[in-house]
Amino acid sequence: MAFDIDMIKQVYANMTERVDKAREIVGKPLTLSEKILYSHLWDGNPSKAFTRGKDYVDFAPDRIACQDATAQMALLQFMQAGKPKVAVPTTVHCDHLIQAKSGATADLKVANTTSAEVFNFLESVSNKYGIGFWKPGAGIIHQVVLENYAFPGGMMIGTDSHTVNAGGLGMVAIGVGGADAVDVMAGMAWELKFPKLIGVKLTGSISGWTSAKDVILKVAGILTVKGGTGAIIEYFGEGAKNLSCTGKGTICNMGAEVGATTSTFGYDESMERYLRATDRNDVADAANEVKDYLTADAEVYANPEKYFDEIIEIDLSTLRPHLNGPFTPDLATPVGELGDKAKTNGWPLKVDWGLIGSCTNSSYEDLTRAASIAQQAVDKKIKPKSDFGINPGSEQIRYTAERDGLLDIFENLGATVFTNACGPCIGQWDRSDLKGEEKNTIVHSFNRNFSKRADGNPNTHAFVGSPEMVAAIAISGRLDFDPMNDTLINEDGQEVKLDEPLGIELPTKGFEVEDAGYLAPMEDGSGVEVKVNSESERLQLLEPFVPIQPENLQGAKLLIKAFGKCTTDHISMAGPWLRFRGHLDNIANNTLIGAVNAFNKKTNFVKNQLTGEYMGVPDAQRAYKAAGIKTVVVGDHNYGEGSSREHAAMQPRHLGVAVVIVKSFARIHETNLKKQGMLGLTFANESDYDLIQEDDTFNFVDIKDFAPEKQITLELVHADGSKDTIMLNHTYNQSQIDWFKEGSALNVIKRENAA
Q1: Domain coordinates of the chain in residue numbers?
Q2: What is the pTM for the complete model shown?
Q3: What is the percentage of the chain residues whose pLDDT exceeds 70?
Q4: pLDDT, tens digit, for every residue of 11-67?
Q5: Per CATH, which fold does 5-318 belong to?
Q6: Looking at the Swiss-Prot or TrEMBL record, what is one Pfam family this protein matches (predicted)?
Q7: Directed axis angle between helix 68-78 and helix 178-185, to 10°?
Q8: Would you name the residues annotated as active-site residues?
Q9: CA-CA distances (angstroms) from residue 329 to 13, 189, 249, 358, 570?
Q10: CATH superfamily of 322-496
Q11: For residue range 104-118, what is the model confidence (pLDDT) as tens digits?
C-alpha cells in the first residue's frame, strides 16, 4: 500500500472537475502539464486563464521532499515559522553526507560517526514536526521518492534540483530552495511563474546500445544548459510509451541540466507496471479510474505545434548513443565521433574511472544493463583498464540486486560497491588515485560534469553517458572506444567484441528488502526537544536577515565580476564543504571561491577596494561587512545554474552582498535570491557587463521607487571619477518586493503568523 493514499485519492477526486473547468476557461484542449498545474491552484477551481512565461501563480503542492544537505537549512528556517507541524506530507532523505571511499559498509559507518550530529538533528526535527525520515543508507532521495511517493498527476516540490526525476511517474515535480519549501510546510501558497511548454515528440523505439539516457543527452545538445529555462518539457508519442518508467525518470531527472522547470510524461502502461511492482496497486487502481486526465488531450499530441511553445522531434530508432562533456552537460557527441573530437581538443583518451549510479541512473534496470556488459568482460576474459564504482539507488534496489547476483558480477570485475547514496556525483568521493591537479578523464552515468564537481580537480574531464556505455568505455579504458564497432584484446590475446546490453525492466521475482530505512514520525511531536549546541561547527540556529535599506544601496562596492560559467558549485561548493551546510557562518567561507574573476582570470583572488590588496572572496567580503559597506556581484549568462542549493543565495546575503547583476539567471537561483531579501537584477543591455570596472562604486539611484515592471537606474562611478548610467531589469512582483522590504520571505511569514 502507498504512503498517503487518501491524499492521492483526493487529488484525483478534485482533478476531474478542475481540469474540466480549466479546459472551458482556456478554451482549447490541454497538455498534461496544464492539467496538473490548473488542478493544483491554491484557490481551488480555476477562474482565469494564465499567460505562460508572464503570470505569477499560487499553487498548492501535494508533498515535499528534502535531502540532508539542503534539509538542514530548510528546517532551520521552518523552526522560525512558529508552526507545530508541517502542513503537507514531507520527507527527509539522508543521502548527501556519505563519502564514497572504501565501500558501502565502511563508508556508512564513517558517515554515521562523522555526521551523527547532523543526522540526529534531522531525525529529531522530523519527529517533532511530523516529517518522514529516511536513514543514511536508505537510498538516494529521487529514487526513493520514485519507489514510494511519486504518483501520476501529482505536484511536488523538493529542495534539490533533481526533484524533477518524479516526472517519470507523470508528476509535475519541481526543484526549489529551502525557503520555498518552508512556505508550503507552513501551509502557505507556493508561487511560480506559469511555465512555457516545450513538447518533445518521441517516435520509434530504442534498441541496442541506445538507452533512455541518450534521449536527454540529445535534448541537452539541442537546448543547451539554458534552453529550457522557464519551461516544462512534456514528452509524448509512441516512443515515449515504449520507454520504461525508470527510463522516463532518467530523462526527466537530467532535464534540470537544460534549465527546465520540470519534465514529465503522460500516464501509460509502463507507469502502471512500475506502481504495481513497487507495491502500490492502490495508486495504480486509482490512476486508472482517471487516466484520461493523467495525459494530454488527444488533440494536443495529434497537433502539438498548436499547443506547445516549441517542438522537438526525436526518432528513437535512429538515435545514437552519446557521451556529453567535458565540463558541461550539454556538449553532446555521438560515441563514434568522440575520439577525433577528443584528439582535436586535447582531452585525455585514457579513462581512469567508470562510475555507475546517481539519482539519474541507479534503477534495477540500469544495473542489469550495465551488469550485462560487466558479465561479458568476465566471460570473455577482458581485464578492465579502468576502476569501477557503483552506487545503487536505494536499499530496496541494492538488496534485490544482491539477491539476483548483479552486485557479484560487478565485484567479480573488481568494482567497489559504494553506499546507496549520491557519492561521487556530488563530490562526496575520496579519490585516492590522483595527486594534485593531474589532467585525467572519467566517465559516469551522473547528470552534471562541471569542473571540480566529482573530485575537486579542475582538470578532471568528466563525460556523461548511460550505465552500459560507461561500463563499456571503462572496460576498454579509452574514451575513443566505440563498442558498436570496435574490438578488444582479451587475456588470451584474442580479439573480442562486446555484445549489445540486455536489461530487465523490473525484477522477475519482484523487489525485496529487509529494512528500507524509513522512520515514521510521532503522531504528536510537541514533546520532542531539538537541541543545537551553540559551540557546534556543523549546526547554527538562524538569525533573521535585516532588510536592505535604500541608503545601503548608495556607495556599494564591487565584490567580484564573475567571468563565464558560474554555477551554484562555483558560488557554494559541495564536496568537503557539505559538512557545514547547517552552519551558515562557517559555510560562508566558501562563498564564490570557485568563480573566475573577470579582471585577472583567477579564482578566489579579488581586490579589496578598502585596502587595495588582493585576497580570497570571503575575506574581502567580510572586510566590507565589518566596514558596513554593501557589495555587488556581477555575472554572465545563466548565473546560478545547477543545484537548488539556497546556500548560494544565503551565504552572500549573510556576508553583506546586497545585489547580484547578471546577463541572465537560472530559475531556482533567481528565486532563492528573492526569498532571502536580495536584489537579483539583469542588464537591460547585456553589453553593459563590459562597463563594470574593478574599482567601481554602485549607486542605485531610484531604488526607493522599486516597483513591478519598473526598471532600476544604476550609476557606475569609476576610479577615475568618470560615470556611466545603465538600466537594469527585474522580475519582482509586489509580493516579492515585500520580501525585499521585510528582509526575507521568512520574515514575512513570521510577521503574518504573529498577527
Answers
A1: 5-318, 322-496, 550-754
A2: 0.92
A3: 100
A4: 999 999 999 999 999 999 999 999 999 999 999 999 999 999 999 999 999 999 999
A5: Aconitase; domain 3 (3.30.499)
A6: Aconitase
A7: 50
A8: 95-96, 160, 448, 643, 645
A9: 40, 33, 17, 15, 16
A10: Aconitase, domain 3 (3.30.499.10)
A11: 999 999 999 999 999
